[in-house]
Amino acid sequence: LDPISDMNIRDEGMELFLQKKSSLEARRDASPIHAAEDRPTRFAEYSRKAELTEKIRLLRKEAKASQTLVMRDQLRRMRKVLKRLGHTNNEQVIDVKGRVACEVNTADELLVTELMFSGTFNDLTVEQIAAMLSCLVFQDRRKEQEGGPQLRENLAGPYRMVQEAARLIAKVSVEAKLDLDAEEYVQSFNPDLMEAVYEWATGAKFVEVMKLTDAFEGSVIRIIRRLEELLRQLASASFVIGNKDLKQKFDECAGRMRRDIVFAASLYL
Question: How far apart (Å, rounded) are the C-alpha atoms in residues 221 and 224?
């Protein structure tokens, strides 16, 4: 039966519907698939594809939900580390130690903050501070040396302090069940530029400093620039806790980094 001529349906919507129906039927008849002999097989394969696509969508949704749970668990463990190290209180509010860590983004903020609050920097000279902090910004692979790095005594002591603080952080992280290799973390702080940075802080020329390291000139310049930025951040952190003496020491150390070719606007001047 024709809805218009036989059933006398006089609705504009019906006419539009019938026109669309005729257009779709014409497109269907013109399609090569409609006349194909294996049309049922193709339809079955397409249905299978649609089912698999829907399963993929659901699995991705489940994977995303699982990842969220993992991240949530990881965040809970990280909060536990911050609490045990004294960066937050029992109400998970950032404490003074945490505020200091927030000032640092050039190096490992937990390690730097631990060194600061343990009083490590108070008894070191400006040159020793610069050399010690170079371990935190120098990320190149360490040279394998039998018996450990060969450092002069006034640098070996600060380096041991870095390792002790790193072991403390690693121990707390492992106890909080964070995925961390304690020894790898401790060994990640490279002392290979301590001698060179120490001499730079004393006022030595760049050509003399380069004789103390196998690193490329560009790498040394990059590290000293990062070190200067870290020192400025530590000066700001010292201001936050009201330690004017320590701020002055960091400012002086940063000033000793900013000189000569390392901070030249162009190497062709």
Answer: 5
